Amino acid sequence: MMGKKILMLVGDYAEDYETMVPFQALQMLGYQVDAVCPDKAKGDYIMTAIHDFDGAQTYSEKPGHRFILNADFAPVKEQDYDALLIPGGRAPEYLRLNDRVLKLVQEFNAAYKPIAAVCHGPQLLAAAGVLKGRTCSAYPACAPEVRLSGGHYAEIGIDQAYVDGNLVTAPAWPAHPQWLAKFVEVLQQ
To answer: What is the C-alpha to C-alpha distance for residues 136 and 124, in angstroms, rounded to an integer?
Structure first.
């Protein structure tokens, strides 16, 4: 376990818990977690958003924290990392428009390295074309994208996680205990 490096792809309005909790919890376990964002450098920050369930038909969004990036995106190479982590929120929606981000996701998948994605994170997996024939969970509003990309959508509880080979996915932050535990299990294989 010790010495393993995880690349975390984040962007503005990534979900606050889905950014902060994995970043801190995985470091607590001894992993090196490099949080990067395209067109931003180490020491820059992203704004996070707090998504909550307040009784409306969809989640609400409130301002989150300034999350400081601890690594540069520009020099990132898949071969320098053991795994990839993709938080949810609104960031995946625009990050999937970046060709280099999509190429990184494809490279991690081609190398069959562990990939953890939560909530809207699977939007990046769908856009990168790595879900064909695979099963993954995501926030329910992303189910059509999973299916349209040739994947199978796992309908599981909001506090559950799903593993399909190297993919560890979950619907939202209430799944953190299962999602992170299953990700660590896959990382240790």
So the answer is: 12
CA distances (Å), 24 to each of 20, 92, 152, 181, in order?
6, 20, 31, 14
How far the first Cα of the chain sits from its last, in Å, is: 10
Structure confidence at residue 2 as a pLDDT band (50, 70, 90): low
Closest to 128 in 3D by CA, of 158, 156, 161, 103: 103
Q: Which domains occur in the chain, in start order?
A: 5-187 (3.40.50.880)
CB proximity list for 161: less than 8 A, separation 6 or greater: 137, 168, 169, 170, 175, 178, 179, 181, 182
Report yes or no: 100 and 106 within 8 Å, Cβ to Cβ.
no
* Percent over 70 (pLDDT), the chain: 99
Question: Are 94 and 11 spatial neighbours (Cβ–Cβ below 8 Å)?
Answer: yes
**Two tokens, residue 85:** 């982590």
- pTM of this prediction? 0.97
State the residue for tokens 């020099």: 75
